[in-house]
TrEMBL record:
Residues 10-38 form the Zn(2)-C6 fungal-type domain. This is Zn(2)-C6 fungal-type domain-containing protein. Transmembrane segments: none annotated. It comes from the Eukaryota. PROSITE patterns: ZN2_CY6_FUNGAL_1, ZN2_CY6_FUNGAL_2. Keywords: Nucleus. Residues 65-114 are annotated as: Disordered. One of its GO terms (molecular function) is DNA-binding transcription factor activity, RNA polymerase II-specific. It comes from Oidiodendron maius (strain Zn). Residues 95-110 have a biased composition (Polar residues).
Amino acid sequence: MVRLVGRSKGCESCRKRRIKCDEISPQCSQCVLSSIRCPGAIVGNVFINVSDDFQEKYSKCTRIRKKRSNRKPKSMDFIKTNDLPKILTPDTEDTPSSQLRSTNQQSPDASPSREIVQCQMLSQPSTAFALKEQLVGNFIHSLLGSPGGPMMKRWMLELPYLMLQENLPTLRYAIYASSMALYSNMEEDAVIQREAFTDGTLCAPMLLSFYEMIRSTSAYNWMNHMTATARLLQLRGVEGFDTDFAHRLFCSVRLAMIYISTALQKPSFLASDIWLTRPFLKYPKSQFDELVDILTIIPGYLSMVSKEKSSGGLDSPSVCLHLRNRLLALSAALQEWKETDQMGLYPNEWDHLSTRRIMHEHSSTYARTIGVISSPYHDPFKVEVSALYDSGCILVAKALQEISESYLSATYEDAIISSSASILASVAYIDCKTAWRNAGGPFRLVHPLQVVAQSSPSAQQTSYARDILSRWGESWGLSGMCMLTT
């Protein structure tokens, strides 16, 4: 092992690119200009292996390289410029790999001359980085050049240096997204605006929402992230969910927004006719999707009842009649969905058990009630769907109880107790299963439990529901989602 005279001490990146490195520590100027991570210059002496075997291999490789470099390429005068692939087209990326792909697709039987052209094209640097840097520069200049608020924008001058020094993907993504949003609004280009709301963009806040469901200090944290996802979904447009993956995202967000809209008693844009129909043109609705349609509409009427109640509008007979007719229509839709029962949710003995729920509620311990009613269940998914159906029945009955005459109050109260008993029976079945021990628990049953805890007139039912929510929050890691909203 001896010192190799003249061996470069430049960083590894510069040596691979075969450019002169100024060996500045900790990052050389070439790597900083190219926005790549600099491994640093070599410190100390550089030694190489000069054994006989290595010298023989080295001299052989050198002779081969000299022979190849002495070859003269064939004349390429016969190649027309039209045959060369376009470097910048709307359908291709401005990258060497896409250029090579385009060349291979246009001429599958490439000649040796064409291969030389491809090699020359691969040596051309990509302009993507320069375009992005120009985009960021124009973005900062546009904001700083506008009047007002200099103290709010002065820090933006440091953004290019932060991008080079810290190399954070989230920072780059945020800057590029803000730049594209600004220019799409200035140019009124709807295509660019829609490109900002990709599938990955929707997934990011959804995953943050799941994190807040598991570990959170507030009942609203996971809702904030999911509401942000719903807003991105709305900005993407109702036509943007025709692919299989995008449609799955849409259905997941739609179901989660039922929980949020119900808890906050606020109507959702997903309850509009266009959002209930257009995303399902390519993918027909299942019976579960039809139930979600009804549950999506219910929070809007809960909001109307709450608003009229606080403003004294329920004193008007016409207002009460209007709300009552709408709520009765929702109740009829739920009953029709149950009678269809394409999923086989309710076995033959269900009606018999339904008539005995209230009797068990008042004549025996509640543990015995749950044990009797839980016998018809055999499938976990059907149990969760049944609980969602019962939660819708409770919400509609609770709203009808608030706007109806006093003599009907007992009827709706019995209906709420009956549906609450069904939900708790579903919970009793799921609670003894171990399928969710490593999956965070059954998310869909948390919402029905919260409905029981906040709507049931039975102190026994509300206490049992709250105990289950507290235990699930501790044992299944659902502390964020199991918190009750006030």
